[in-house]
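Deliverable D5.2: sample structural annotation.
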Amino acid sequence: MTYEYVVSGTVIYDDEFEVMEGYVVIRDGIIHEVSTGEVDSSIQGIIAPAFINAHTHVGDSVVKDISFDSLKELVKPGGLKYKTLSEASEQKLIASMTSCLCDMKRTGTCAFVDFREGGVSGVHALKRACVGGLKPFILGRPDGDDVKDVLMVADGIGMSSVNDHPWDVLKGAAEASRKSGKLFAIHAGEADRSDIKGALELSPDFLVHMTCADDGGIRVAADKNIPIVVCPRSNFVTGVGRSGERPPIKEMAEMGITVALGTDNVMLNSTDMFAEMEFTAKMFVQNDRQVFKMATLNGAKMLHLDEKIGSIREGKTSHIMILDEKSNSLCGTKDVIKSIVRRARPDDIKVVLEGKSGAV
């Protein structure tokens, strides 16, 4: 049985995010038609691609708004974060992650990329926590387990800084990931530049942060076609992003790097991508269409899935959010994309459509 429905209104269409008045026909979870004109529809509003949160640590949701003195104290191996995670029961950990993912879904995210600590059991815990309507991409971390065992259950490997692990471990993880056809990603340049060169030498599928990268490091990433996920709110909270020059998002984009947005540690920030976009647009990048792409299409490009998700186009999966153009926040807008990036909130969402499940 074919499942089809129609939504209409202001459509943000195709990979260039053209704004048009029209409608979208969705058939069995796939965008079947996008056209201009008027048509009877089940729901009306601003029809936009749903978010892809390109970097999270969902396990951190077990403790929120933690107090710390420095980034190193918080996230180093054996540091405050790892101690907190190790002390949490599996039941509490899964319950907190489930709540976090429900909130993520409610705020317009359709897919997320998580760096999951705890080896094989850590990956299984996140899978048990997952809720319908969200597509997880889980990058596990060995943490005592064999890399090959982690790759059997995860979508790839996500490591912390090269300063935290022996080089042979990192190189082996990168090679094993490539051999298995899965992702390898690593944090770099978050607190300083000391780990950037090593991270680039590993040729990861993408880097996270590069907060303190200079033009030379950014140029190497551009030349090697390595995407970068930036997490501006997290950097600000941890004290490594207070300068207007860090993270150098504008420079990354100008050099042709695919830049995606993530919300990072749940213990420090919400997973609200509206908040991440607003902060990024007002502090770093004055191109609202570019910022919206960082929160949607660029995450799909980073995952090599931009032919399937990340924008509204015929043949792609219907990862779509419909916003209320008559809400108190959005009524009277003259520039739909600018308003979504700079003022829209989760309560402006009428519905999120995800694949075959329809409304979520």
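Annotation notes: The chain has 14 helices and 15 strands. The two ends are 20 Å apart (CA to CA).
The annotation will be released with the project's public dataset once the embargo ends.
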